[in-house]
Design a protein that fits this description.
This protein is mostly helical. The protein has 22 helices and 11 strands. The protein has 4 domains: about 60 residues, no CATH class; about 90 residues; about 90 residues; about 170 residues, Orthogonal Bundle (hpI Integrase, Chain A), CATH 1.10.443. Helix 14 runs antiparallel to helix 15 and helix 19 packs across helix 21. Bound molecules: zinc ion (ZN) (3 copies).
């Protein structure tokens, strides 16, 4: 019986693996394989299971072959099966998935996908992605490798834009198989088709012209400047809906876009009961594109800043974000950069690690041109975040995003931070205005503009507002 007793735990169940000094059970072997330790013999960080007197040492120190070594590559990291490591297993499965039957080789265009996944920091995740019953992404990849499906953005345009397809598409883009694309704009295309599908042909054609020449152009410009957010996307759709609504109203009055009069436009406004705003871009566009120059929209007043969060509320939120360990790191950091430095979430999520400078004593963040020293606690949060960020499937591809997103090559979405802040009762947009108000009262406008990266005009407007007595301001708002 003695030779069936695990040297490690003393158990007799599944004590199958033989070591020079006796058997080890499956559970102990697995535990030791997953938990590398510093070898007391040589100091290397490896799985230890060999007895040398009272010490447990590595295979080299014991002068023998490691039972933990992969039978293919000989490495002890990334345990997966009993004999082979996760990386070797993944290499085989990917080779199988990506081989082009015409050549017997991995499809030429898909080689970057192969190298990216095999080289990733956590091959286990890749194996999971290719699990026995492969999901949508791997299945599509196989069809691409076999030449059954074209490797192009067009392929994805003809497929539903869901998680699995977006993920694969982002992966192919991140590794350079497909050129860069903007998912929010891509999703607009089918949406425009659908939304105009039931309209009379002439109206549909006009709306599509408006959508392509005005709305999408606007979105592309925003995307080019890296500031295309969900808010802008939602507003873009609303502009198209309002345009459709306006045309429908005109139709009931026996008119169309070209024949509408100013009087009809005013009746339309009464009918909707809504003030003219940026939602009515269609009417401005009708004028600009000379389809109907009779229609005039009164100048849309610029929104004056209004502060709805008090300083007490803002500092209470700051305290919460500094100390609440139940919140995720990126939510706390994102929230604090908004609440302390008035950074919009859309800019925070697109930050690069190169904007941070970390020393033993300090952490500096450059929002615009000048590095700003981070206060205590926030500096620790950023330090820890930099150490732990991006331990995901594709971390081997250093994108440089401070907040890498779930999809390869992309940063986190604003919504990922916003929704979690709102869930804790912190409204980032409202708080940011309070922060601007607070900062503008303390810092000269031109300095503020340079420090946090807002326009000088904007900074001056906030300074003007902050210069007014706070109590008078509250009183004014009450009216
Ligand atoms: Zn054991
Ligand atoms: Zn050793
Ligand atoms: Zn291996």
């Amino acid at each position: 019986m003695k030779d069936r007793v695990c040297f490690d735990c003393g158990g007799t169940r599944y004590a199958h693996t033989r070591l020079p000094h006796g058997p080890i059970c499956t559970a102990c072997r697995r535990r030791r394989h997953y938990h590398h330790e510093s070898c007391p013999g040589c100091g290397a960080i490896r799985p230890l299971a060999y007895l040398a007197g009272a010490l447990v040492v590595c295979a080299s120190c014991a002068g023998t072959e490691s039972i933990f070594a992969c039978s293919t590559c000989g490495r002890e990291d990334h345990p997966y099966g009993a004999k082979r490591c996760a990386r070797c297993t993944l290499r085989d499965r990917l080779t199988d998935l990506l081989t082009d039957p015409a050549t017997g080789q991995i499809h030429t265009r898909l080689q970057p996908v192969f190298h990216e996944l095999v080289g990733s920091e956590r091959p286990q995740s890749g194996i999971w992605w290719l699990r026995k019953k492969p999901g949508t992404g791997p299945r599509l990849l196989r069809q691409m490798a076999r030449g059954d499906v074209e490797i192009s953005h067009q392929t994805f345009r003809n497929l539903p834009s869901d998680r699995a397809h977006d993920y694969l598409r982002s992966l192919l883009t991140a590794v350079g198989v497909l050129p860069p694309f903007e998912i929010r704009i891509e999703r607009m295309l089918p949406w425009i088709e659908q939304t105009t599908a039931d309209l009379p042909a002439e109206q549909a054609a006009l709306i599509q012209r408006f959508a392509h020449w005005h709305v999408l152009r606007h979105m592309r410009r925003a995307a080019g400047q890296g500031r295309l957010t969900q808010t802008i996307t939602d507003a873009s759709r609303r502009r198209i809906r309002v345009a459709i609504d306006f045309l429908a109203f005109l139709e009931t009055c026996g008119a169309d876009a070209a024949t509408a009069t100013q009087e009809l436009l005013e009746r339309y406004q009464e009918h909707t009961g809504r003030a003219f705003s940026h939602e009515h871009a269609f009417i401005v566009w009708l004028r600009d594109s000379r389809i109907n120059t009779r229609l005039v929209i009164p100048a849309i007043p610029r929104l004056t800043p209004a502060v709805t969060v008090s300083e007490e509320q803002r500092w209470a939120a700051v305290e919460r974000l500094l100390h609440d360990d139940n919140l995720r790191h990126y939510v706390r950091i994102g929230g604090l950069l908004t609440l302390l430095f008035a950074q919009p979430l859309s800019r925070i999520v697109a930050m690069r690690t190169s904007q941070t400078t970390v020393t033993d004593q300090t952490v500096h963040v450059t929002f615009n041109t000048t590095p700003v020293q981070m206060p205590p606690l926030l500096d620790d949060l950023i330090r820890q975040h930099l150490q732990h960020r991006g331990k995901s499937l594709y971390a081997s591809r250093e994108t440089g995003w401070l907040f890498p997103g779930g999809n390869p090559g992309r940063h986190l979405s604003t919504e990922a931070i916003r929704s979690q802040l709102v869930a804790t009762g912190i409204k980032p947009y409202e708080n940011r205005k309070a922060t601007l108000f607070g900062l503008a009262g303390d810092i000269p406008a031109p300095v503020l503009a340079d420090l946090i990266g807002i326009t000088h005009k904007n900074a001056a407007a906030w300074a003007g507002l902050a210069a007014r007595d706070w109590t008078t301001y509250i009183a004014q708002r009450a009216h």
